[in-house]
Design brief:
The structure is a homodimer of 438-residue chains.
Chain A lengths: L11 H12 L3 H9 L5 H10 L3 E17 L2 E8 L5 H13 L5 E4 L4 E9 L3 H18 L1 H9 L3 E11 L2 E12 L6 H20 L7 E9 L6 E9 L12 H17 L1 H21 L4 H12 L9 E6 L2 E9 L13 H9 L5 H24 L3 H16 L4 H10 L7 H17 L1
Antiparallel strand pairs in A: 1-2, 3-8, 4-6, 4-7, 5-6, 8-10, 9-10
């Protein structure tokens, strides 16, 4: 392979011809790339324009999880996820809790954050004094950009100078809080910050006797601990009386709490525990055209805020009552960005009744808590593999076009064996050969 | 809306009819759900079976990032991502570094982790003694499950009893390390752990005089700090001489280091910095059918391992040399799971030359470092918005079918204004009306 120049200017077929010459793709792969284009040119153009050098689309199945009772309203959640059993787990959990009061959610804040990082060679107090004198001027300088957001209830809500860190002398940042209404607000925040940075520079240029200011960079922070949502389910422990033939309702509640407590204290468990929460949350984030990298980075950093990585959910059991709660920062939008452009994101938002950003935070948290509940329930009763493998085996049997009898025999055979597609295929071949010989 | 029973048993059209009755979907949404099914029934069945209650597919564009020179081999990376500019950023960075030695990568380990959590009422030393006596027996009990993995170079590599945490008296876990060859190994690890748990129970059942053991749960950990990959680029700082009209090569290198150092010490910046790394990594993880929730949870927990959330990459500049490196835990597979089932994941792996899991770790890390490099470069030179907005504006103008003249005027008009689809659309309407009146 040789370095290729001007690749982004190639047409789609030029790109694929080049790739084929360099890597010798199979006919099957070339066909797969073709058949995954959307059948309507105008819609395909939308997908092609979302990213660069696009040659096809990657499919993630969109499933429906009904029976989510959230603050008294029943909803059906569109979930986009490639991992089997996530939608099933969400649905089971949703239905169980719909019969026991549902999910209670609460938005604790929606503050977004941006920073202008800079160095200042002079005295810190002088910097602070100059900033205090000029703050109104600075805010006024960006009103042409913030006016529209202010009409929607957003805008800049605070602005402070912070020194960076003891290890970084002379480093400071402007720490700006924003409200961005129903938008995630990345473009808005970054545009305002870049403008503030250039104003800040100009402001201090005139008076270099006190010190020199140099801008390093201006950018939103994906860490938004004050854009926070809470979600919980609550019931008498007796609702768990049919959870397991081996556990009484109280035993189930206690064992559930044990499992959650382990995730509070053991980072090896906490990571997997939280990963299960994100299984549910990301499925909503993807479906609605939001940015799962932003949500993941923020949520996991929040999970480590007390110095040791810990779980995002907790369980309280006392006097026959069970409460399971999740607190997670989420920065999401239901207008702007991909939400208005991506056809399937638009469809997902319609399925949800075109929610506000605050409502989407709450729905997303409920999906996370629902999946967390199902995962712990499986882990402390049947084990995670039984459900997984049953589903996995079922899918593979369907793909291998197994008959009812073959399905019955394979299910028995693989009950105590590790399952793989090749083993299953070999097993079916063996019983099919056997039948032919009989 | 009412609680629905037996929803998972409904056919696709029954599901959609029910949803439509409950939420009154638009004709457009129903059409979108239909037209996003794959045109070939057999392929659509594969996607439908990946998850549950599936009614359509969510499209993420697949783009190509050429010119990745990794340990001397040139590669083209398939990247699946909905965020504009990620593939462009990766490609720019790849081409730049291909001319300056490329990416150097190194796998530091591939250990996976699983835990059997349990309580033990007796003396800890007795537990340890019983475990030591029975360890071989325990390992032998799972050889029917591990034999095949051992042939591929994997299997169990260590097994220890750990006490859980001072806050959790009488809680312990069996801490098991695995190698899983080219598989991510989740099903394998969970099956082995569940079997070990049941053996462990049986082993101690006979001798309850010393204490009682109760299994809480058995599950792999997504935290795999010993499945670790390193990646770096390195050059004389003079390679940066054309990076910016305002910065000399040395100034660029120093400012780049400043930006990276801020991300080391400031969690608000570290989260966004690492998010940019995951932009590139997740695009590979998605394309190859791996689990981005697992990779995200692990990587961010690793970023917090020293008690404060920090950046995963670092910069060293000394004596005219620049080195930019990333160290990140990655647990990925190139066989098993979705990799063999998802048609587009198979295509992506073929584009990459069907790599081993270790090679995929290295490619993924290179994509992460490439995106991190481009992000910092933009931030410290033109700012992040210039590139973003240019691309964003271009896409929207294409969608609004703007003429060359309209494109020229809109580009000038929005140079100093916040861009939104509705504003752009209104602006185009206004100049189109103007033209009609002339």
């Amino acid at each position: 392979m040789q370095i290729v120049n001007g690749f982004s200017k190639f047409s789609r077929s030029e790109k694929l011809n080049w790739l084929n010459r360099e890597t010798n793709l199979s006919q099957q792969t070339l066909e797969i790339l073709d058949t995954h284009l959307h059948r309507e040119e105008a819609i395909q153009e939308v997908y092609g324009d979302l990213s660069e050098n696009t040659v096809s689309n990657y499919y993630l199945p969109l499933g429906l999880a009904p029976n989510f009772l959230i603050n008294g309203d029943l909803m059906t959640l569109p979930m986009v996820i490639e991992e089997s059993s996530v939608v099933a787990a969400a649905s089971h959990s949703a239905k169980f809790w719909a019969l026991h009061g549902g999910f209670h959610t609460n938005v604790l804040g929606t503050s977004k954050v941006g920073q202008v990082h800079f160095t200042w060679s002079g005295d810190p107090e002088t910097l602070q004094a100059i900033f205090n004198q000029n703050m109104v001027l600075l805010l006024n300088s960006v009103t042409p950009m913030t006016r529209k957001m202010e009409k929607r209830g957003g805008g800049i809500t605070s602005m402070e100078i912070h020194s960076a860190h003891p290890e970084l002398p002379r480093h400071y940042h402007l720490f700006v809080r924003f409200k961005t209404a129903d938008a995630m607000g990345a473009n808005f925040i970054n545009s305002v910050l870049e403008s503030l940075a250039s104003q800040l520079s100009q402001m201090l240029e005139n008076d270099v006797s006190e010190g020199r200011l140099e801008i390093i960079m201006s950018i939103l922070s994906n860490y938004t601990p004050e854009s926070l949502v809470q979600c919980y389910v609550e019931a008498k422990t007796e609702v768990f009386r049919n959870m397991s033939p081996e556990l009484s309702a109280d035993q189930f509640a206690r064992k559930f709490q044990q499992a959650a407590d382990i995730a509070t204290h053991d980072p090896y468990r906490a990571v997997t525990h939280n990963k299960g929460i994100f299984n549910g949350m990301d499925a909503l984030i993807l479906a609605t055209g939001n940015d799962f990298r932003a949500v993941e980075a923020c949520g996991h950093a929040y999970a480590s805020r007390n110095g040791s990585y810990s779980s995002l959910s907790r369980v309280d059991v006392s006097e026959g009552s069970f409460r399971f709660s999740l607190e997670v920062p989420l920065s999401v939008g239901t207008v702007g960005g991909l939400t208005g452009v991506h056809p399937m994101a638009r469809a997902s938002l319609e399925i949800l009744g075109n929610p506000s950003a605050e409502l989407l935070m709450q729905i997303t948290a409920a999906a996370g808590l629902a999946n967390n509940f199902s995962a712990i329930r499986s882990l402390i009763t049947t084990g995670i593999q039984q459900g997984h493998m049953k589903m996995h085996l079922g899918n593979m049997l369907r793909q291998l076009k197994a008959s009812k009898e073959e399905t019955r025999r394979a299910t028995r055979y693989f009950a105590n064996r590790t399952l793989s597609y090749s083993d299953l295929s070999a097993y079916l071949d063996s019983i099919r050969n056997q039948n032919q010989q009989e």
